[in-house]
# Entry
Amino acid sequence: MIVARKRGAYAGNILRVDLSTGKVEKQELDLAFAHHYIGGRGFGSRFLYNEVTPEITPFDPANRLIFTPGALFGTAVPAASRTTATAKSPTTEMFGDGHSSGRWGAMLKSAGYDMLILQGAAPKSVYLWIDNEKVEIRDAGHLWGKTTMGTDQALRESLGDHEIGTLVIGPAGEKKVRLASIFSDGIMGTFARTGMGAVMGSKNLKAVATRGTKDVGIVDIEAFRKAYQDYLQVISVDPYVPPATKYGTCRFMYHRVKFGIHGAKNWRLGDFDWKPLDPEVFRSDYQIKASACPMCPVRCRREYRIPSGKYAGTVTKLEWETIARSMTCGVNDPEAVIYFSHICNQYGLDVEGVGDTVAFAMECYEKGLLTDKETEGLPLHFGNPEVLIEMTRKIAFREGLGDLLAEGSLRAARAIGKGAEQFAMQVKGSEMSAGDPRGMPVRAVSYATSTRGSDHLRSNPYVEELITPEEGQLFFGSAEAADIFQGLKGKGRLLAWSENFVTIGDLLGLCKFAYYRSATFSYLRKKGVELATRFYNACNGTKLSEEEMLLAGERSFNIEKAFNAREGAGREQDIIPERFFKEGLAGGGPSHGAVVDRGKFDLILDEYYQARGWDEKTGLQKRETLEKLGLKDIADDLAKRGRLG
Amino acid sequence: MEIRLKLFPPLSDAAGASELNLTVGNQATLETVVNALVNRFGNRMKRHLFDTEGRIIPSWAVFLNQKIVPFNQPHALEVPVQPQDEVSFILNIAGG
# Structure
């Protein structure tokens, strides 16, 4: 039974732990601050900007690692199960964050905290035990070296409680592999991107175990019930949902196939022999469990088991990006793909970063920039699953060439030299994700403007694929916004809106697939803005308007942009790899020969900067834009450093 | 005349097949094909092709003989089909 709570969805406290000194501080959460920045990514970005200045490097103990559950996590809001981890990124050396499902965020709030700020570095390996008010830094000697699952199980057994929430790193995080992730509750969720696992490892922190027994809740239960019914009504009619429920994220294969945008073999081939990786193959031959993240009615989580052969008995979760990045390495053996996912999960690695980095090395090998001498005899050929798996292991443990690749593709390319940088498919130092952008200029620009490096989840570039020309005119000032291939006007405005829009999900802890993807623009806005705002108001007894919620998304995005500007980034960093401009997609298929038109790219970027109120020439923010968002102090800071537009 | 259809989820689930032949009249257009699908498979097909206001969902992309015809473009439904054309439907949105 849901019980009304006066306090609402906030736990009310901030927990700060200095791992160097062992000092634990608790501070009351200022509700005015909370309603301004909302939660999740909003809290993380604001505190990171305040506390991590340019002279602090990612592995400096002074770097912060900030965990912030979304504002609605821990309530009964459907698909509200996301937590943000924020730090200065070892991959981009700019703003970094990862977002994960799992139980841990709800446990932190139930323990009484909306935010966990970690600073300093422990002198030896430790884990943090948060048991409601009790907070202890404990020795982790017995955990160091264990896999993610092994650490999770050991913690639950030693603490005698299988209901706790956990955050753990694997061997890759311990060794500060820049592609390392943090895992939540075993492998239930992953803070995958931007090297958050390496930051945790640099602090000698193996895990955070948390038990909370208090409640966060809902102020206006009737308003909550009505919003819940409306949410269920929308997802019951949205054609986007049934394939998700049937196949999980493996369903995205069909979209890639029809458009021919696989990006196989290090982002060169649009078409690829994908049939062995058909979603139906995973469903019928390997799926053993269909489940859901906490409170989610869509149920797109999947677990797979390999029944026989060399990887027999392997059981793991797998998402679409593992399949996509296996194809980037030319691999189409489904059992190798499942096993690749398994070892990334166990060693604590980001499949996207690792897949693209191995593909980079394969192309270097193909071009003779890496030889058998550097690979120690490992033939780095595209399409060889054993090579992908062995190279992944070497990266996790920094063995041989893996030590270089553990730095990520851009740093590895700079070390190799001889023009290798052209084969590192990355933006701002973070490897590519999702589908190939050639032929779809707004998607290309969205990869460039993401504040954490290449990322399809920082915006919703797919809006151009589902709006009508009338909606394009009404919302983005031009019917052209709805034209995927030829349109130009309105695209920059669409992108800026969609970035603010999906950021709402990261403030509230809402799943992107459950709220920020849909088959129609009206369903999309209904879920992502209207219902998200209604849920927030019902939980907190507030009267935030939809415009104010979008403004909160814009505020958070601008803080991240300001963080990067302060680090020296401007328009020249909002760029995608040259390959996309110069080399037509090869391999046949519907997009064969497509490139990203540089002229269109620049015009969309110009319109995007205009829409954002940033200077077109430098890409830097203007004072009036930041002041409008209530960020005068950031404008002053940037002005002092000469980083305003 | 008869055309060949390729369907992806959720339409393939609604039709119970991912490939099938469909009979439509001469002078048929893509709109004719959509209506023939709804006539043959009823509400379980209609609920995926039309929104709650009765408008065809614009994010369906049709590939007519491998060439894309996005339904969010003006006049997309008026594109004519010929005997033995291959028409495939896919929800034109990715995500992950």
Observations:
- Chain A has three domains: 13-211, 248-256+264-424, 441-640.
- The interface with chain B takes residues 237, 239-240, 242-243, 246-247, 249, 251-252, 254-256, 258-259, 319-321, 434-435, 456, 462, 465-469, 482-484, 512-513, 517-523, 590 of chain A (CB under 8 Å).
- The mean pLDDT of chain A is 96.
- The two ends of chain A are 52 Å apart (CA to CA).
